[in-house]
């Protein structure tokens, strides 16, 4: 947490390496407060992520060494068997800090570096598949723009923090207490990983389409936030008010819990693999006209599942509610998601038939969605 200031606004603007300018890391204060007068600061990508990682490691190390020191003082310096692995604490947090530093320091350069260096020097087969995209226009990457690098950096950092806190909270509560409330940080972990992977897969495999909105943090707002908030409250209140209640009949709780974990892992994996395999043919938004680079993908995961990304999210979401033991939210998620995906698939497939004709009709006949009541 102490490294948040360094990571929050690490970049005012990243530009292509071949930009005719002198690349230098600016003075330390300007990393905290980028200029507000529209000035474009040029950063060297390698220096930027190294700088970010360097200061993050220092601040995390100091913060947690201080925390360990306070803990030792509170124990009065007494040695016990429970302290013999205390040296692992700063090591674990150093590793966590390293991962977060790498994420925030290098991820912010994916769009500008990949899109600018890889795509700018060769003609695009898709023509105008992204009318807002111009790798030579640095203003697109400034704050409050669709591809804002500062926006991407802060979201990546916050998701990294959420993932770390959620994972530590889940493991700590599960292994060191008898409380069932480990489910709450588990949900935070699952959400943080999901939203990070939504952006990362887009940035890595469909770079031109990657924007701040690719995190899907405000997708279907506010219904999306309300659903997750309700699920969190249901889990919290259920286990606080009825701590000994058995939500699963016939002693099926452990089996349903295991099934939930399987669905979470399976759903996330299938969705991410689908986005990777589709590449530039994948888009978070329904496409109303066929782009020149849009092809019908029927191989790989798409040869097993029709709309595998929808399959993945549907079962991932239901799996999270099974793990949390949420009966009401499970039913609510199932109904809402089924209605959403059934109508969206029907509408989207009308467009796909118009795009690909008999090829898509034949594909639809032989490959299922594996979403209940959606053929």
From TrEMBL:
GO CC annotation, single: endoplasmic reticulum membrane
A GO MF label: protein C-terminal S-isoprenylcysteine carboxyl O-methyltransferase activity
PANTHER family reported for this sequence: PROTEIN-S ISOPRENYLCYSTEINE O-METHYLTRANSFERASE (PTHR12714), PROTEIN-S-ISOPRENYLCYSTEINE O-METHYLTRANSFERASE (PTHR12714:SF9)
Name by which UniProt lists this protein: Protein-S-isoprenylcysteine O-methyltransferase
GO terms under biological process: methylation
Protein family (similarity comment): Belongs to the TMEM170 family.
Protein's organism: Achaetomium macrosporum
EC numbers, comma separated: 2.1.1.100
Location, primary (coarse class): endoplasmic reticulum
Signal peptide: none
Keywords on record: Endoplasmic reticulum, Membrane, Methyltransferase, S-adenosyl-L-methionine, Transferase, Transmembrane, Transmembrane helix
Membrane topology: Multi-pass membrane protein
UniProt subcellular location: Endoplasmic reticulum membrane; Membrane
Pfam families: ICMT (PF04140), Tmemb_170 (PF10190)
Segments traversing the membrane: 53-73, 85-113, 152-177, 184-201, 221-242, 249-270, 313-338
């Amino acid at each position: 947490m102490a490294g948040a200031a360094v990571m929050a606004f690490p970049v005012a603007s990243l530009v292509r390496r071949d930009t005719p300018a002198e690349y230098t890391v600016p003075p330390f204060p300007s990393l905290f407060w980028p200029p507000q007068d529209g000035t474009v600061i040029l950063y060297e990508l390698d220096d930027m992520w190294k700088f970010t990682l360097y200061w993050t490691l220092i601040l995390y190390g100091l913060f947690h060494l201080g925390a360990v020191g306070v803990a030792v003082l509170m124990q009065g310096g007494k040695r016990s068997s429970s302290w013999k692995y205390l040296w692992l604490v700063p090591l674990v947090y150093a590793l966590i800090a390293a991962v977060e530093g790498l994420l925030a320091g290098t991820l912010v350069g994916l769009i500008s570096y990949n899109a600018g260096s890889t795509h700018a020097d060769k003609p695009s087969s898709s023509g105008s598949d992204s009318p807002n995209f111009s790798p030579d226009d640095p203003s697109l990457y400034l704050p409050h723009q669709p591809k804002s690098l500062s926006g991407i950096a802060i979201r990546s950092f916050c998701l990294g923090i959420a993932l770390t806190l959620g994972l530590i909270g889940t493991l700590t509560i599960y292994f060191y207490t008898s409380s069932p409330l480990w489910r709450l940080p588990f949900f935070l972990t699952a959400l943080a990983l999901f939203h990070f992977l939504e952006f990362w897969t887009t940035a890595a495999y469909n770079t031109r389409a990657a924007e701040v909105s690719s995190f899907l943090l405000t997708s279907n707002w506010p219904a999306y936030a309300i659903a997750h908030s309700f699920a969190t409250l249901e889990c919290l209140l259920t286990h606080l008010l009825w701590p000994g209640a058995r939500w699963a009949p016939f002693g099926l709780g452990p089996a349903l819990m295991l099934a939930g974990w399987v669905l979470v892992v399976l759903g996330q994996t299938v969705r991410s693999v689908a986005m990777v395999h589709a590449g530039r043919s994948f888009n978070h938004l329904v496409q109303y006209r066929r782009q020149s680079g849009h092809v019908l993908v029927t191989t790989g995961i798409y040869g097993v599942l029709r709309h595998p990304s929808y399959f993945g999210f549907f079962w991932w979401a239901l799996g999270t509610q099974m793990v949390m033991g949420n009966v009401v939210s499970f039913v609510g998620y199932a109904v809402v998601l089924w209605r959403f995906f059934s109508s969206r698939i029907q509408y989207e497939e009308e467009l796909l038939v118009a795009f690909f004709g008999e090829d898509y009709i034949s594909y639809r006949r032989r490959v299922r969605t594996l979403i209940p009541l959606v053929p």
